[in-house]
């Protein structure tokens, strides 16, 4: 079994894949062989020992004991310090040498970023998974701490994309700086024209982000042609009901991309 860890700036997403179970386009999709998954908060102050404790306890709660059955690990991290802690935890306590994903590895995808090593490894994992599941050209929208857009050309190359503030980052900034506004539940508004403060915020955040995403997809398509659009990330389901262009939601895109990268490089 393969331990896949996607260290984001807000949460660490962990999945365990049984690699003897097929996944992909024809059988199982991105969750084929996914035996368990969980999320833990990204915190800078954990030691590698504490991180190992969290990981092994969560694995056990999913009836996946860390000590038997894990024969590989792959990590992507957008937070270098926490990523290093996770790698150290896996090395010290799980006796595995994790594959650490970066644009400097040969991932089987041509990376046309000016400096391939600068691309977020989560964005590359998303791209590898997209190419396994769908036909390019494509656009992946990942709703996390940031909202990222990745463009995959018709020849299957990673072209780059866009990085926008994430939904919660934007909402937090708004509430912390607008004295008269207070926190609300984010459910989709019935009208774009809000007739109360709560409805106006819901409109601005949810419909506003959806419009931004739809508008970005149109601009990307002007450069790469009509594309398959796939959404992922912890906040995807908040925005996609209001989006015209993001109709496909793949919650396990990044984890599945990590599995594919591991299998490709071994
Ligand atoms: N199942 C879920 N439904 C709705 N929101 C979720 C879910 N899981 C996580 N989240 C939210 O998603 C955010 C984290 O998204 P994620 O894509 O993991 O970001 P990052 O990769 O930047 O850490 C958190 O704010 C969390 O509250
Ligand atoms: C853009 C990101 C912050 C998104 O990370 P996340 O929101 O998932 O934590 C991350 O992919 C990153 O730090 N990328 C490096 C810069 C780049 O991709 O160009
Ligand atoms: K991410």
UniProtKB/TrEMBL annotation:
Keywords attached to this entry: ATP-binding, Coenzyme A biosynthesis, Cytoplasm, Kinase, Metal-binding, Nucleotide-binding, Potassium, Transferase
Gene3D superfamilies on file: 3.30.420.40
Cofactor(s) required for function per UniProt: K(+); NH4(+)
GO MF terms, alphabetically ordered: ATP binding; metal ion binding; pantothenate kinase activity
Family annotation (PANTHER family): TYPE III PANTOTHENATE KINASE (PTHR34265)
Any one GO CC term of the record: cytoplasm
Positions bound to substrate: 113, 120-123, 197
Functional summary from the UniProt entry: Catalyzes the phosphorylation of pantothenate (Pan), the first step in CoA biosynthesis.
Pathway membership: Cofactor biosynthesis; coenzyme A biosynthesis; CoA from (R)-pantothenate: step 1/5
Keyword Signal: no
Binding residues annotated for ATP, in chain numbering: 6-13, 145
UniProt-listed GO biological process terms: coenzyme A biosynthetic process
Source organism per UniProt: Ferrithrix thermotolerans DSM 19514
Origin organism lineage: Bacteria, Bacillati, Actinomycetota, Acidimicrobiia, Acidimicrobiales
InterPro entries (UniProt xref): ATPase_NBD, Type_III_PanK
The protein's name: Type III pantothenate kinase
Keyword match Kinase: yes
Family stated for the protein in its record: Belongs to the type III pantothenate kinase family.
């Amino acid at each position: 079994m393969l331990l896949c860890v996607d260290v984001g700036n807000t949460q660490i997403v962990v999945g365990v894949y049984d690699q003897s179970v097929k996944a992909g386009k024809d059988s199982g999709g991105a969750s084929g062989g996914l035996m368990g998954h969980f999320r833990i908060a990204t915190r800078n102050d954990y030691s590698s020992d504490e991180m190992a404790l969290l990981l092994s306890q969560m694995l056990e709660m999913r009836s996946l004991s860390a000590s038997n059955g894990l024969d590989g690990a792959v990590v992507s991290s957008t937070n270098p310090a926490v990523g290093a802690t996770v790698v150290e935890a896996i090395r010290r306590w799980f006796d595995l040498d994790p594959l650490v994903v970066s644009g400097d590895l040969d991932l089987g995808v041509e990376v046309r970023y000016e400096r391939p090593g600068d691309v977020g490894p989560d964005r590359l994992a998303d791209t590898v998974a997209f190419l396994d599941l769908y036909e390019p050209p494509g656009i992946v929208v990942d709703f996390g701490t940031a909202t990222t857009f990745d463009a995959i050309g018709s020849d299957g190359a990673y072209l780059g994309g866009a990085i926008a503030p994430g939904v919660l980052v934007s909402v937090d900034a708004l509430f912390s700086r607008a004295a008269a506004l207070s926190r609300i539940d984010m459910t989709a508004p019935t009208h774009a024209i809000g007739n109360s403060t709560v409805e106006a915020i819901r409109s601005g955040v949810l419909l506003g982000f959806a419009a931004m995403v739809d508008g970005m997809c149109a601009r990307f398509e002007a450069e790469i042609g009509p594309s398959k659009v796939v959404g992922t990330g912890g906040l995807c389901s908040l925005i996609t009901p209001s989006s015209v262009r993001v109709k496909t939601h793949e919650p396990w895109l990044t984890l599945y991309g990590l599995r594919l990268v591991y299998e490709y490089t071994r």
